[in-house]
Amino acid sequence: MNTVFALAGVVIKEMYRRKDFYVLFVLTAVITLLMASMNFFNDSHIVRYIKGTCLLLIWICGLVVAVGIAARQIHAERESRTIFPLLAKPVSRGQVVAGKFFGCWLACGLALLVFYTFFAVIAGSRDSHWPLLLYFQAAWLQWWMLGIVLALVLLGSVVFTAPSSNATTCLVIIGGILLLGGHLNKLALREAEPLRTMVYAFYFSMPHLEWFDIRDFVIYDHALVGWSYWALATLYAGLYSAVLLVATWMVFRRKPLNL
Amino acid sequence: MKQPAPWSLLLLVGTACLSVATYLQPRAVALLAAEHNDSVLNILLGDSRRIFANQLFVEADVSFHSGYYPSVWDQAAAPKNSQHMTATEGSPEEEEHERQMSFLGPPTDWIDRFGRHFMITQHTHLSGGNEREILPWLKLSAAMDPHRIDTYTVASYWLRRALGKPKEAEQFLRDGLRDNPDSYELLLELGHVYAENFHEDQRAQDVLELALRRWQEKEGGKKEPDNHSKEEIVINLAHLEEQTGDIKDAVIHLQMAAAVSPHPQALYAQITELKAKLAQK
């Protein structure tokens, strides 16, 4: 386990050395503050459009950070040939996959902590309302959703030859699931066989990332998600991430290390 | 290699500047001329700004429903107009809207059932001053497409009715009238502001009379005119005339309203009442 955490530590250090996160955070902050500075009918209590914009940016940035950081992990080790001394430590390939995953996941967690703290300050300063438990649920669910995303991108990084193709493919798949995933059952019902069964099979087997998006609850000051459902969603994300990580390890185990 | 003389470089740069200036000058003049007639957004986005305006208006409607809104897969349930945004509780428009918006139905499978715990599943409308949250989207929508009338009327309705900002409502409607001088809907809404908020009855009456003239110009010749707006204009006019003692004109306007109303019984009763008052005089 120590090896896994040591590898994870390296990934976290890499994230705060790189400029990706800082650029995305500054961009989010500038756009949100610009939106907040706009005057609509001399009413300073209007806040939901700022919350909506800021949360949308947080979701986009979260995905970009996660995909960007995970897509290059294994590829960079193989390209710079540092994978050989790493595996000679000795570190198993399973530990490499787990270490990379935990590093990326914790790095995403830190990024989300910064983003949500900024969000809470902006929203709270505007409407003097601090639903911290709801913010916690939203950030937590997003973090676990990013866990599935990271596992998927790590799997892609041992399947695709370049980080760019991996990142692009993963972003298309994730975007597709987030936008259409919850509606595939309706789409399936409109189709004839055998397409209906195929669409339904995909609907049941894909990870339902849209469950983890409770931005509307935060924007419209809705009540908390039931804690039992919140826990079940966490378990679902954990299981999906584990399945994808095992698949990554199985592919990586037989993969030649030379590029 | 021999270096070129500084004066020859200067001459080259000067020639390049002159060429660029001659190329850009007529284009800049055309752009500035267009700017006098049109906004910068119009020049940059062209007709595509209407799509953005529609999307922003939908965003206002989503906000009005606190996130409960049909997706692209439930478009049959999507509101077709903005009447529900200004409909009073219990009105036929509100009841129709309530029926339309029950688009979720029972869950089809366990994924659907579980997923509903992470989405808003109750049909509500903003209330208690929270209506202000739709205003940014409406203002941005109006900036994108200044010819979309319901953007102004919906914003003004909530500004004057729920948020106590009739001055802002008047200003927004005046902005709308600048771009849509023939709009009877904007004039009708302006009439409401003057009558109900500023209590300037004479001014409201003048604006509503102008609204009626505009209605006749635009809708008079149509096969299916907007009778709902006409009914509202003439009923408001009749009430103002009744208040100022002009019973004769009030009766005429109520008769006009009864001619286009789907439920004229109450109007006939009012007409009889006013005629009795007129006879007493």
Describe, in plain words, how this protein is organized in 3D.
The complex is a heterodimer of chains A (259) and B (281). The two termini of chain A are 28 Å apart. Chain A has helices at residues 2-17, 20-36, 48-71, 73-79, 83-87, 93-127, 132-159, 163-180, 184-190, 195-205, 215-219, 227-253. Chain A is 77% helix and 0% strand. The model of chain A has no long low-confidence stretch (mean pLDDT 91). The longest helix of chain A is centred in the middle third of the chain and has 35 residues, at 93-127. Chain B has 281 residues and is mainly alpha-helical. Helix content of chain B is 67%, strand content 0%. The longest helix of chain B is centred in the N-terminal third of the chain and has 32 residues, at 6-37. Chain A binds chain B through residues 38, 40-43, 45-49, 141, 182-183, 185-187, 189, 203-204, 208, 210-214, 216-217, 219-220, 222, 225-226, 229, 232-233, and chain B through 63, 66-67, 71-74, 108-109, 111-112, 114-115, 117-120, 129, 132-133, 135-137, 139, 155, 159, 163, 165, 168, 172.
Topology record:
The complex is a heterodimer of chains A (259) and B (281).
Chain A: H1 2-17, H2 20-36, H3 48-71, H4 73-79, H5 83-87, H6 93-127, H7 132-159, H8 163-180, H9 184-190, H10 195-205, H11 215-219, H12 227-253
Helix pairs in contact in A: 1-6, 2-3, 2-6, 3-6, 3-7, 3-8, 6-7, 6-12, 7-8, 7-12, 9-10
Chain B: H1 6-37, H2 40-45, H3 48-64, H4 92-100, H5 110-115, H6 135-144, H7 149-161, H8 166-179, H9 184-197, H10 201-219, H11 227-243, H12 247-260, H13 265-280
Portion of residues within helices of chain A = over 70%
Compute the number of helices of chain A: 12
How many extended strands of chain A?
Answer: 0
The amount of beta strand of chain B, in percent, is under 5%
Helical residues, percent of chain B: 55-70%
Q: Write down the Rg of chain A.
A: 20 Å
Largest sheet of chain A: none
Estimate the global geometry of chain B from the Cα principal axes: flat
User: Unreliable stretches of chain A, pLDDT < 50, 5 or more residues?
Assistant: none
Multimer state: heterodimer
What is the N-to-C succession of helices and strands of chain A?
Answer: HHHHHHHHHHHH
- How do the SSEs of chain B run, as a string of H and E? HHHHHHHHHHHHH
Determine the strand fraction of chain A and express it as a percent band.
under 5%
Q: Mean pLDDT score of chain B, rounded?
A: 86
- In angstroms, what is the radius of gyration of chain B? 27 Å
